[in-house]
Amino acid sequence: MPLALLALAIGAFGIGTTEFVIMGLLPGIAGDFGTTIPTAGLLVTGYALGVVIGAPLMTTLGTKINRRTMLMVLMGLFTVGNLLSALAPSFGILLVGRIVASLAHGAFFGIGAVVAADLVAPNKKAGAIATMFTGLTVANIVGVPLGTFIGQAVGWRVTFAAVAALGVVGLVGIARLVPVLPRAEGAHLRRELAAFRNTQVVLAMAMTVLGFGGVFAAITYIAPMMTQVAGYSEGAVTWLLVLFGIGMFLGNLLGGRYADRRLMPMLFTTLGGLAVVLALFTVTAHNKFLAAVTIVLIGALGFATVPPLQKRVLDQAHGAPTLASAVNIGAFNLGNALSAWLGGLVITAGFGYTAPNWVGALLAASALVLAVWSAALERRSRTRTPAPTTTTGPLPATTPTPPCSVPAA
Fold first, then answer.
1. Could you state, in order of their start, the residue ranges of all structural domains in the chain?
2. pLDDT for 275
3. Cα separations in angstroms, 281 against 86, 236, 241, 257, 270
4. DSSP assignment, residue 331?
5. SS3 of 304, please?
6. How far is it, in rounded angstroms, from Cα 383 to Cα 380?
7. Is a pLDDT exceeding 70 seen at residue 280?
8. What does the alpha-carbon distance between residue 283 and residue 369 come to, in Å, rounded to a whole number?
9. Superfamily for domain range 3-180+194-381
10. Are 18 and 140 in contact (CB under 8 A)?
11. 178: pLDDT strictly greater than 50
12. Which pTM was predicted?
């Protein structure tokens, strides 16, 4: 494994911790600022929207400098945002800090995914991307539960300060381990934007929004759901987040292993399974053991879609993958923002803390429909492409060359 992949995983660990640790801190933050849980959920929505905006913005700015320098800049921005969150005197400033940190997220994973894919052989690209995303999944096994524990024990501000320290570690790791990688020859913004005219790129991003949105519809409100519905103590939420992280880790490895060989069947299986499990979560959330098992499955099925979806965007974007890759990371977070908002709406409407699970099931099922449509369009495109004409010998000199008999599409 190239050491550069380890450096990328270190950065991903820090970013993954700050993205997901907020879920376990929502009750404490809401209590400190005297606001409701759904309002505190805006910290998830705001972060996600910041990723959506920051992904294309920061990637575009980064086209003028080498990739290692840009990754270092992004980790610096991430660190500043978390320090601002730790010192925030009001809920509004905390939200601003979250958004500042989030601006680095999409571009980091987008540029990092391109770097990871370029470091290995073509048949190992999805595996390399999965290795980088391992940092994100390990963050949910170690970083997020530890951050949640610290937040509950000594305060959420200490958690954000610790995350800022992780940002510094990530920056140093990138500076020491990632080689100087100039932007691709001939890389221009116009060429990068041209990738979005590809229907398959757009469909892959839509699958990302809906599929990952399904995961976060449930997981955003896991703390109140598990304490108020399943009957877990507040301290047990830390261990439930560990289970979610273990599921993410296993799912990410599974997705990376099979995406290079059977990408679309992998998406059909994981998206369909995710829709079913999220629907069942409305029932299993009332039982401690079944709720814990379901949380593992949601993490595994949700993150098994990450390597194949990211690889599909890279494949379909052809020679201009950087911006498309970053925007697809934004699409993951647009799904987070959409689902956190919709989940808050159904809770506020009085449908209870399990209602977001139905929202998630519908989103995942919609992603499955798009995956089937995408595969159908791909098959249709292949059948319309005429096969090359071959002959067993030269045509007689007196025989005119026949016109092409393939009808126009």
1. 3-180+194-381
2. 95
3. 34, 18, 16, 27, 16
4. H
5. coil
6. 5
7. yes
8. 24
9. MFS general substrate transporter like domains (1.20.1250.20)
10. no
11. yes
12. 0.70
